[in-house]
Amino acid sequence: MNQRLVNIILLSLSCVVMVIGAHRSMEEDDFIGNYWLFMIGLVLYMLYYYRKKKNGA
């Protein structure tokens, strides 16, 4: 698979998960209950950053 496409997918998923986490936190008034969504978003972003740094792009 194209490396650039994988990077774009990782970045997009990271943003989507963060937005979903923020929305659920505001609707439910429960940040701690949705903490796992923010951590998944953070891990996806770190994977994106690591792959981008590794490829030198």
Q: What is the residue-mean pLDDT, rounded to a whole number? A: 94
Q: What is the gyration radius calculated from CA atoms?
A: 13 Å
Report how far apart the termini are: 17 Å
Number of distinct beta strands: 0
Count of DSSP-assigned helices? 2
**Helix percentage:** over 70%
Low-confidence segments: none
Can you summarize the main beta sheet? Answer: none
How many individual domains? 1
* Overall 3D shape: elongated
Run of helices and strands: HH
Strand content: under 5%
Q: Summed up, what is this model?
A:
This protein is an all-alpha fold. The protein has two helices and no strands.
Layout of secondary structure:
Elements: H1 3-28, H2 35-55
Helix pairs in contact: 1-2
What does this structure look like?
This protein has 57 residues and is mainly α. It has one domain (3-55). Helices cover 82% and strands 0% of the residues. It has helices at 3-28, 35-55.
